[in-house]
Amino acid sequence: MGQILSNPVIDKEQHSGSDVLTAFGLCAMQGWRMSMEDSHIVDLNISDDEKEHLAYYCVFDGHGGSSVAQFCGSQFSKILQKQDAFKKKSYNEALIQSFIATDEELLKDPVLANDHSGCTATTLLISKLQNVMICANSGDSRTVLSRNHIAKALSYDHKPTLKSEYSRIVTADGFVEMDRVNGNLALSRAIGDFEFKSNPDLAPHEQIVTCVPDLIEHTIDYNSDEFVILACDGIWDCLTSQDCVDLVHYGLKQGLTLEEISSKIIDVCCSPTTEGTGIGCDNMSIIIVALLKEDEDETAWHKRIVAKNYTPPNSFENQRRAVFHFYDFPENDDHVFEVTNKRESDETDYNDDRKVGADRGASSLANLEAILGSGGIQITPGENNLSYIHGTALSEVLASLSGGIRSQIEEEDEDDEEDEADEPTHADEVEESEVKKD
């Protein structure tokens, strides 16, 4: 399960948007994990061709760190658009090329090439001109289509125990132990994870862990195809594909927006406690993509889907009770989501503290740079939000700081000893008491 916090970080990143082809609602939350290692892409149109319209959605689930996932979140669309096949509108080939090219770009960065993190990628490209959607998936994040309220898989989880994955791993001189690649990695395809791709005699698709995605192409039928869900395994560990589709339909019947529904699904999946099986303690990211007909906006789409009169089997509250059946929830539904719901006063206090902290942080950083600069030490920005401190006087400053800390500790110890010496003893107190009596 990995390291977890004593309380979950429940601040959510939420977005929504729409265009002529799709509309979306997104939510992401760190949860119980020590840091947030997910990233995502929501791009309503990545085509520069007036005749084409291409919506592109991605969820990246990082492991072993956030560096590779963050790189993908910022660069994946650009890398896809650079591929020759993309310019020729050969989207299947372009998607495969983009995954391989991303690994190659990572290896060009000396820091990222030696980074031990990796990430899964589940991506959806929707073409208006070709009337298709293509899912390219590498890892155990998942993309699901709601087709007449029935969940249809657009991707399959890449686990080391699958026969096809196991065969490649063993052929590449790897092994599977405790359902993990080399006893370590719980998934068998990913971007990054270069320690599992170190055999120079093997092609990318032959490595122990490969970045090469599986592709599923689906011709869109707007009378049947309703929406698509992309999510990391933090969601799918808690919900089946059909459970998730049903919850979206339930939210739509309640009049919620796609953004509100995605937020509510994360509430459903966030564990109320760290006790138990460990499900619900992961980072969570989910994107719900509405498939819009010609000249249809999100409001009209919403009404059209609700008019199908599908009745989902569970509410958000009942689904949460079912997922965490071992937990004793309050009978009142209003308290089922206590772990992820903030009181308004808590939210205000948090935002005030965050603003003060941000101002203080910016001021402190400026002061630090000025102090260091005057001593001949520079701070140089690097890639991936990393900064490097260097300069000939650096070692002297560190030694001075260490010496200052030691001196301060010694002074505090001396003060404590003096205070103890000045404190009256029991004998002194008795003598003073007798004098007063006399």
Written description of the protein model:
The protein is an alpha+beta fold and 438 residues long. It has helices at residues 67-82, 84-87, 91-108, 110-113, 163-171, 233-236, 241-253, 258-269, 298-306, 316-323, 344-374, 394-422, 426-437; strands spanning 4-18, 22-33, 38-43, 54-63, 118-127, 132-138, 142-147, 150-153, 176-177, 180-181, 191-192, 214-219, 225-231, 284-291, 378-381, 387-390. A six-stranded antiparallel sheet has the order 1-2-14-13-7-8. Strands 3, 4, 5, 6, 11 and 12 form a six-stranded antiparallel sheet that branches. The protein has a two-stranded antiparallel sheet with strand order 9-10. Helix 1 packs across helix 3 (91-108), helix 7 crosses helix 8 (258-269) and helix 8 runs parallel beside helix 10 (316-323). The radius of gyration is 28 Å and the shape is globular.
The third-level CATH topology of the largest domain is Phosphatase 2c, domain 1
Strand order of the largest sheet: 1-2-14-13-7-8
Shape: globular
Number of helices: 13
**CATH H level, superfamily name of the largest domain:** PPM-type phosphatase domain
- Rg estimate, integer Å: 28 Å
Classification by helices and strands: alpha+beta
